[in-house]
Amino acid sequence: MKRRACLAALLAAPSVFAAQESDALQRIRQRGSIVVGVYNDMPPFHVKGQGIDVDLAKAVAEQLGVGLSLLPFQAGETMDDDLRNMVWRGHYLGWGPADVLLNVPVERALMAANPKVQILAPYYRERVALAYRRDALPRVDSLAALRGHAVAVAGQSLAGWLLIGADDGALRADLHTRCSDGVAAAQALREGSVVAAAGLASELESALARDERFAIEPLPAPRAPRDGWAVGCAVRKEAASLALALQQAAAQLQASGATPAIFEHHSVHWRL
Asked: Which residue has the higher pLDDT, 6 or 194?
């Protein structure tokens, strides 16, 4: 009888767990706060408790009528790792998962590869961009215009990968690739050590703060995503009530102008 009871409990566990997850929003409200995962050291979205994602998390928590508990974490080697550690399982060191993870690419391939999560509520469109001094480079219609000019870029980034491999490596001798991120690359541009900087549009815009001396345009690389990519959030697949509430909160924040205002506050042009 004991063996049968144990077997019955094991067979029932998945459905019980699914039912619990379907009431995720109710559990959050009973707890009184929502746990939001945010990336560490990702300017302008999160650095030391401040940034766009922090302000958005506060706004979403207010929409849901609960408090906010941030769960900062260091990015894993892949997005799949981050979804596993922060959304559906938790890290093997014992922290996580969060109720929701911010700054997740809203991409069909990523969704297909991670069936245990829902990726939803896009709140921004990111893209790879180039900032340059207008007096040194009047126009940059192609990457060929950068030859012979010092360009700052984080080597371990999408922008770095695109520039290092462009035109069979023709730009490598002019690249300054030791920047930690696009913000650091933009700071090098502002300080005058380079004439151009590449990175994410959000990084460059936040660092250059609409300085008229610099132009910021999409990176003219053939392999760069032409229209960029949407950024949203992720929850467990079974968390239906929470997913719906997040969709509604995101729509309300965008319609009211709150989301654009948050990006504007951090000197980033909001793109739906």
From this structure: 194
